[in-house]
């Protein structure tokens, strides 16, 4: 990390221009075991890190959140993706609140439980307001999905939920993963969220 900082601060390329972080690459024979250690050490020195790995893009946490959203849009009666979307930073429901709603209704679909709760006389707390807003947005995205490709719908999600800001923090790797996922969605020309 110190050497990279020194190169960027003091050295120049053969053509006389300053060396930038983007000019430097670290190649590793088998990065899986040491990638996090190297990335942490570089970040500790203020070096921005992007790691190209063979890890499955769809298993990265920031991408899984979007997959849950797209699957919930496709079919909100699937409990696992809907729960993932509700507990994600895109909706931000508290897991204790969601568990309390499900306590006596475990045999019922989550979506049905949520709709019943929203139409009940239950106190209008902040969690209920978040949930109502999320369900309204979900309905709107379901309407859009009928007329949009997977890529267009993904772009709408990114814009509406400020996905890069909410899911990346300062992580260049997360941002790159989200961009790869967006590109993947666009590669399904005319595809529905289910095809994604």
Describe the structure.
The protein is an all-alpha fold. Helices cover 58% and strands 0% of the residues. It has ten helices and no strands. The protein has helices at 2-10, 35-44, 61-74, 79-87, 95-102, 110-119, 126-145, 150-160, 163-168, 172-187. Helix 3 crosses helix 4. The protein is elongated, with a radius of gyration of 21 Å. The mean pLDDT is 86.
List the helices and strands and how they pair.
Layout: H1 2-10, H2 35-44, H3 61-74, H4 79-87, H5 95-102, H6 110-119, H7 126-145, H8 150-160, H9 163-168, H10 172-187
Helix pairs in contact: 3-4, 6-7, 8-10
Summed up:
This protein has 196 residues and is mainly α. The protein has helices at 2-10, 35-44, 61-74, 79-87, 95-102, 110-119, 126-145, 150-160, 163-168, 172-187. Helix 3 packs across helix 4.
Could you list some keywords that capture this structure?
196 residues; mainly alpha
Helix content: 55-70%
Biggest β-sheet: count, sense, barrel? none
Order of SSEs, N→C? HHHHHHHHHH
Gyration radius over CA:
21 Å
Distance between the termini: 39 Å
Using the alpha-carbon principal axes, give the shape: elongated
* Model regions low in confidence, pLDDT < 50 over at least 5 residues: none
Overall pLDDT = 86
Residue fraction in strands: under 5%
């Amino acid at each position: 990390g110190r050497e990279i900082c020194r190169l960027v601060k003091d050295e120049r390329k053969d053509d006389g221009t300053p060396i930038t972080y983007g000019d430097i690459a670290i190649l590793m024979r088998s990065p899986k075991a040491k990638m996090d250690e190297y990335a942490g050490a570089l970040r500790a020195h203020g070096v921005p890190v992007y790691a190209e790995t063979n890890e499955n893009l769809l298993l990265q946490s920031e991408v899984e959140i979007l997959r849950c959203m797209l699957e919930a849009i496709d079919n909100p009666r699937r409990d696992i993706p809907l729960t993932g979307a509700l507990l994600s930073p895109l909706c931000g429901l508290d897991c204790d609140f969601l568990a309390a709603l499900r306590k006596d209704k475990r045999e019922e679909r989550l979506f049905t439980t949520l709709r019943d709760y929203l139409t009940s006389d239950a106190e209008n707390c902040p969690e209920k307001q978040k949930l109502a807003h999320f369900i309204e947005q979900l309905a709107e995205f379901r309407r859009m999905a009928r007329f949009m490709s997977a890529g267009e719908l993904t772009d709408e999600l990114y814009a509406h939920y400020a996905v890069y800001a909410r899911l990346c923090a300062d992580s260049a790797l997360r941002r790159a993963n989200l961009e790869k996922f967006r590109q993947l969605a666009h590669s399904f020309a005319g595809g529905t969220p289910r095809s994604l």
